[in-house]
Amino acid sequence: MENTIIDNKITHDLMPVPFGFWGKIWTGILLLFCGIGAFAYCLQLKNGLAVTSMRDYASWGIYISNFVFFVAISLVGSLITAVLRLANVRWSTPLTRISEIIAVSAIIFASIIIVVDMGRPERFLNLVIHGRLQSPIIWDVVVISTYFFISLLLLYLPLLPDLKLLIQSRGNRSDRLSKVYHFLGSFWKGNPEQVKRSRKSINLLCITIIPVAFSIHTVTSWLFATTYRPGWDSTNFGAYFISGAFLVGAGAVVVAMYVFRKAYHLERYITGLHFDKMGRIVVMLAMLYLYFNINEYLVPAFKMRKPEAAHLMDLFAGEYAPLFWFAIVVGMLLPIAMLMFKRGRRPLPMFIAGIMVVVGAWFKRYLIVTPTLLHPFLPMQDVPASYHHYFPSWQEWAIALGSLAGCLLVITLLVRIFPIVPIQETINEQHETAK
Amino acid sequence: MKPLNKFYTMLMILGSLTPVSLYVKAQDSTKKDLLVNIGYYNVNNNVAYLGIHARTKTDGKFKPVGGAKVRLYLDKDSAAYLTGDLITDAKGEAYTTLSPSLKDLWNSSATHTFIALSNGDAAFNAARTETPVAKARLQIDTGAGRTISVSVLELKNGSWTPAKSVDIKVAVRRMGGDLAVSDKESYTTDSTGKIDAEFTREGLPGDKKGLLTLVAKVEDNDLYGNLQVEKTVPWGSVLNSENSFNNRSLWAARFKSPIWLLFMAYFIFISVWSVLIYLIYQFRKIKKAGRTV
Amino acid sequence: MSNENNSRREFLLTGLAAAGIAAGCSSKKSVFEEASGDEVKATGKLVKLLSVDGEVIEVDEAFLKPVPHLPPVSNSEARVGIPGKKFVMVIDLSRCKNLKKCQSACNHAHELNPGQNWIKVYSMQDAEHTAPYWEPTTCMHCDEPPCVKVCPVDATFKRQDGIVLIDSDRCIGCRFCMAACPYSTRVFNWSAPDIPAEVAAQPYSCESSVPQKKGTVGKCDFCADMTRMGELPHCVSACPNGTFFFGDMNEDSVTNGSDTFRFSDLIRDKAGYRLMEDLGTKPSVYYLPPVNRNFPYGSGVEKDSTGHPVTIN
């Protein structure tokens, strides 16, 4: 009897609710950004990539750094859900849905932004028709679609019990949302066979997603590391990218935790304990990433080979120094310093640290892509002056921001439709602890 | 036909190129002068070819004139002697051969004059060029020790007689330009009309059988025009062009990816997707279990 | 200049003559044809001609043209290249004075978007106390091309004759090849190239690289259309100083149009080298060091209207 009351309370608390006033404003703003981005992309389709500031030397720009950023963030799905689940960590249960939603939407926009970067997006199918297995791009295409599929499954399977609750809560209503729930989960009865198979499948998924997640970001790092260029020609790159990805993913989850907790009053479910634990994880990941950064910059800087020297000096003390040190200090050192202490792991400081990590990570990706391209082996001569520098054009900013907004929009919509915190699992855990 | 007179000889000495150009004086100062050169080419003593090259001088530089209409005559500029109606291409060049109708005329003399006539148009003044040619032939022979002897014979009083003091180049046919058979650039014939050259390009790649094509040439000669003769000799090394084009490699085409890469990629792909397909199968089971109960 | 013209013209006619013999006298394939790798197909239509000996002979019409007329090669032929050939270029740095005639001839021949250059002439100075020199660069047509390795769709490919080409009808514009090329040789058509409409309307040919297309990558193609005809690339014939030598490695010979050298002798005697040998890309372009120069470095420095040297940024 008591259980039922608690169950109902949990169910009531965690049910997705229609947008409130701020929810509508938020969604509207995101839609506006998406619209501006779409408009800028139309201009780009019409006039070619000339509307960007990319030129023959800086031939990749913020589209690619944004792509790397999205791929990085999407890794969080495997971290929070899979790694922690396999390690039998219980406290992470309320965070699994958030991280899977982030993963799925980030991977969608990673695919979109890479098409945006193509000079001939209408030839996208050439990748299938003429695909060449030797090219790391093909590896990326295969791995990203696999990862997308796994992430989708990992979002969907644990959702099934909640869908049953959602359907129950809708009663006999036959609006669009109810139809979606029915379509997705009407077959779920929660009988022992289903529960058993589902649990087994989820476990298998958690095992599978880890190597695939490592592949997706390692292959993304190989888009750079398979070239000769200073700053990219590194055997450290795969691990460096993955550690960075886990960091930014964890940062994003922290931010999302804080926002959803505030917006949906989930203080009972996403507690100080969760922030504390996530804080520890972020510190550990930030230190790991810092370690790889030291590896990545100190070793070549010790030798200062001629092609590397110009690039490194530009990062350490030249044109990119402010951004470089911003990414190091704000993206890693300050969060470490803050979250080392218990007081720093309270929700609000955690939120700020999360934002710092994510923003720092975005600029870090920019620093990985652009400065290297502007330090080629042969000098930059015989080209217009504009080819010597890169600062994104408004169209690039609009499209990049639009894609970020789009990612947030997808997250927002998914959260509108599905419970942010898995209801059934929370109930089950409640029952177990009650025993 | 008129034998070469002193006037022509003088002009030939003045001109730096073999085909001597005579320009019709500018009648209209707004029009440009068209410079037409005639080249006579006898290759392998087979069919003779005539080439014209139309140019004009703009800002002190020669530029080819395309689309220039030039009529080429043998000996006399009247219809019966017409050799060809030519229109130059973008490089200012056009070519023709001698037509069989001129057989009797051609055989009637050992020396001829080619006449190029252009009537002029809106942009260019009319032009007339005459180039004398004496019939001559080259003979190439090879001897022991990879020596090459080349002789120049000219037709004099109905018989082929040696021509002396003619500059000859002896080379091996190569793409884009011919490679001299030795470090010596050119040879001059002696009173017997002969030169001897030595082939010193040891180990020069020939074709698949080691064959090389030797070529002896007289270029832009004042009297004989351009003569060329070829001979194939087995003096080259056998070409064994190893080509990795069809090998499997990372830079090869899509169906030529390395085996190890195929193996790795398919192994990973199949193992991951077989798990995923198994999961889809499980999912269908879950769906079924929901319906049966 | 006139010498070059003559030698080339004579060359064309040689081709014709050799073909003429083949048709007129015997069925044997002429050596020239074998060398060019292309066969002129007999049309069966005979034309009567007068020989130098005053005889009337019959020759197949197909052999009459100064340059054997070749139908444009198909995409699949263009991807395979000319059998038995291995093209090579030698750039003699002692002859370059930054005239950039190579560049303008290249830009014109390939109908490049104004401002775009496939050939670049770098002002190089390797170290503080070493002498500056001019270094023209083309595509290196590497034997281990890093750009081809990374292309996801076979849009850029390596042919059996060593040439690396681009199929602009297939390129998806990902620009991975540009990132992969250590020689910065590739350029991108960021917008639709500003070329005459009739040029833009032509069907694209991998061998001529014309017309360049929006959203695709372009680069030096070793003038594959010219080499198929047995002619020299445009940069080679355009350089008044004979800086560029071109030839077939399998013939061990390179020429700049007026001088022809045995490739192996030239590289040995003048200590030829390739750029960035340590990367293992195995370029097909060799350089001769700038020793015993024909021109001092300073003679190539561009001056602005006031006579001051233009600084290279």
Please describe what this structure looks like.
The complex is a heterotrimer of chains A (435), B (293) and C (313). By secondary structure, chain A is an all-alpha fold. Chain A has 17 helices and no strands. Chain B has 3 domains: 6-134, Immunoglobulin-like, CATH 2.60.40; 136-233, Immunoglobulin-like (Sandwich); 254-292. With 293 residues, chain B is of the alpha+beta class. The N and C termini of chain B lie far apart (115 Å). The longest helix of chain B has 34 residues, at 259-292. The radius of gyration of chain B is 32 Å and the shape is elongated. Chains B and C meet through strand 2, strand 3, strand 7, helix 2 and strand 14 of B and helix 1, helix 2, strand 1, strand 2 and helix 5 of C.
- Class from helix and strand fractions of chain A: mainly alpha
Biggest sheet descriptor of chain C: 5 strands, mixed
Class of chain A in CATH?
A: Mainly Alpha
Assign an overall shape of chain A.
globular
Instruction: Tally the structural domains of chain A.
Output: 1
Rounded to an integer, what's the Rg of chain A over CA atoms?
A: 23 Å
Radius of gyration of chain C (Å):
21 Å
Oligomer: heterotrimer
Which pair of chains has the greatest number of interface residues, and how are they split between the two chains?
B-C, 63 and 70 residues
Q: How many beta strands in the DSSP annotation of chain A? A: 0
Low-confidence segments of chain C, given as residue ranges, are: 1-39
CATH topology of the largest domain in chain C: Alpha-Beta Plaits
- Kindly name the structural category of chain C: alpha+beta
Report the portion of residues of chain A in β strands. under 5%
Q: Could you name the ranges of chain A where pLDDT drops below 50 across 5 or more consecutive residues?
A: none
- Per DSSP, the total helix count of chain C is 10
Count of domain modules of chain C? 2
Helix content of chain C: 10-25%
- Give a short account of the largest sheet of chain A: none
CATH architecture name of chain A:
Up-down Bundle
